[in-house]
Amino acid sequence: MAVPGEETDRPGAVHLPVLLREVTSLLEITPGLIVVDGTVGAGGHSRKILEAIAPTGRLIGLDRDEMMLDHARRQLAGPHVELVQDSYSELASVLARLKLDAVDRILVDLGLSSDQLADTERGFGIQTGGELDMRFDRSSGMSAAELLNTASASELHAIFEEFGEEPFAAGIASEIVRRRHGAPLQRVSDLVDAVESAIPAQVRRQSEKHPATRVFQALRIAVNRELDHLQTALTETFPRCLKPGGLLAVISFHSLEDRAVKNAFRDRQIWEPTTSKPIVARPNEQKINPRSRSAKLRVARRITPELRRDIP
Fold first, then answer.
1. Residue 308: its pLDDT value, please?
2. Phi, psi of 123 (to 5 degrees)
3. Is residue 117 a contact partner of residue 128, using CB atoms and an 8 Å limit?
4. Helices in 129-225 by DSSP H: which ranges?
5. CB atoms near residue 259 (< 10 Å)
6. Which of 53, 97, 211, 233 is deepest in the core (most CB within 10 A)?
7. How far is CA 308 from CA 245, 269, 270, 275, 277, in A?
């Protein structure tokens, strides 16, 4: 996600980091720290973090998407950088391989990259017209097309309703099942056509967003099990991997993610929030980068054992 005046000329990637200044400030990035970027993407946040922790700090960047790691490798290099293809929910095993017990800071940006949205091969973006894949890691798991063409109407209904909060979930699910009897849904245009035909024309005309936006979000979340990874990380992985007194920052982009972060940070045996409410992008950033409008940043400190009894 974009931030004004930052990284606009990076070759090979179009994605820009959201809330960059706020992240580096609230994470209290200083020289010598061990920092994990759990969704390193094109390296926008990590590049600034790496500069701030130099010369003795260490950066560990994780991403499930090999394409994004390729972008990151062009931006991040040196003896103090480790880039790993894995989920942030698997950070404990990654640290074990690196012979580390815990780290000082963790950042997770849950937003979909502009580079992923522009990828014409995987179908993340409604306008791409590509195949319906939507997997971050194409080497494993079920693609969006496979899910659409095998799940029952009730299963699709549940996915669209729970992960997309789609009010027309039932009708869209029924229309998908009806259409796939004639031919499987394989491309972005197949899904877009099915969604548009299931939503009343008046609703489509009045909507500011594309009528298929919620369905695409829901499918991507389901295919990649995004909320499962987030919940595991918040309740198990990050508390285990973050040093006492260390800081965790999470940038979310829809209510389901933000709710999970907010609820996790309520556990005062583990977390002490350092942001009383979510930090949002400033007006100038939102103007230059519309994708930043939905970004919410929450930060919390890992409670040290001696402070636990003092936190209500």
1. 45
2. 75, 25
3. yes
4. 144-150, 153-164, 169-180, 188-198, 201-206, 213-224
5. 12
6. 233
7. 12, 6, 8, 18, 22
